[in-house]
């Protein structure tokens, strides 16, 4: 169903990166270099492969936060302005010097998009933006979105069969359902 560039882990990383910023709650989980290190350890394709600790700087943090802005903008705009989301993806891939690479492991072939620079932000941009591009190309731009919950703007990618997701989690969907029910029940 999805093309060769698609990797669910890369899509999950894109969503997780975007959701390190919670604008309605005023929360930012990427304010320090240590928070960046933890995020990369949790979401790096090389995590746990013995690549050793990364030496990260405030510059890396600023660059990754800029990538986050782009990824979040793509997720928020794709379903309503696919052309703008496409331009953001293309610019981000170009800026990160993204290059597709054919890989083979255990009788499986796939295409991985990577960067030829050693900047962690470039690799993160190449990985996340190519994954979002792959979802758009395969399933359409309406599969990317921001939660419809009134007190939530978390982002999501809808990989379900019917493609009707409106909320980031079942909790947000349940809260909206309860609020709608209460609204119908109140005299008015």
Keywords:
two-stranded antiparallel sheet, single chain, 6 strands, about 190 residues, alpha+beta, two-stranded antiparallel ribbon, globular, about 15% strand
Question: Could you characterize what this model shows?
Answer:
By secondary structure, the chain is an alpha+beta fold. The chain is built from six helices and six strands, in the order αββαααββαββα. The chain has helices at residues 8-18, 33-43, 58-77, 82-95, 120-139, 170-185; strands at residues 21-22, 27-28, 98-105, 108-115, 144-146, 155-157. A two-stranded antiparallel ribbon has the order 1-2. A two-stranded antiparallel sheet has the order 3-4. Residues 1-5 and 47-52 have low confidence and may be disordered.
Q: Could you provide a short overview of the structure?
A:
The protein is α+β, with helices and mostly antiparallel strands and 188 residues long.
Radius of gyration, whole Å = 18 Å
Question: What percentage of amino acids are in beta strands?
Answer: 5-15%
Give the end-to-end Cα distance, rounded to a whole number of Å. Answer: 48 Å
Strand order of the largest sheet: 1-2
Element order: H for helix, E for strand: HEEHHHEEHEEH
> What's the shape?
globular
Alpha-beta content class:
alpha+beta
Uncertain runs are 1-5, 47-52
Q: Which sheet architecture does the biggest sheet show?
A: 2 strands, antiparallel
Average of pLDDT: 88
The percent range for helix content is 40-55%
């Amino acid at each position: 169903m999805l093309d060769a560039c698609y990797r669910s882990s890369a899509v999950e990383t894109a969503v997780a990166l975007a959701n390190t910023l919670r604008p309605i709650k005023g929360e930012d989980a990427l304010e320090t270099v240590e928070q960046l290190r933890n995020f990369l350890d949790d979401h790096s394709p090389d995590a746990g492969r013995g690549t050793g600790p990364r030496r990260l700087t405030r510059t890396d943090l600023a660059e990754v936060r800029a990538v986050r802005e782009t990824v979040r903008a793509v997720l928020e705009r794709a379903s309503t302005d696919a052309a703008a989301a496409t331009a953001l993806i293309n610019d981000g891939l170009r800026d990160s010097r993204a290059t597709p690479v054919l890989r083979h492991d255990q009788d499986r072939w796939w295409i991985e998009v990577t960067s030829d620079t050693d900047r962690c932000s470039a690799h993160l941009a190449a990985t996340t933006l190519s994954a979002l591009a792959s979802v758009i190309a395969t399933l359409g731009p309406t599969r990317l979105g921001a939660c419809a919950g009134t007190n939530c703007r978390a982002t999501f990618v809808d990989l379900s069969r019917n493609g009707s997701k409106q909320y980031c989690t079942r909790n947000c969907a349940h809260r909206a359902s309860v609020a709608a029910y209460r609204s119908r029940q109140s005299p008015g």
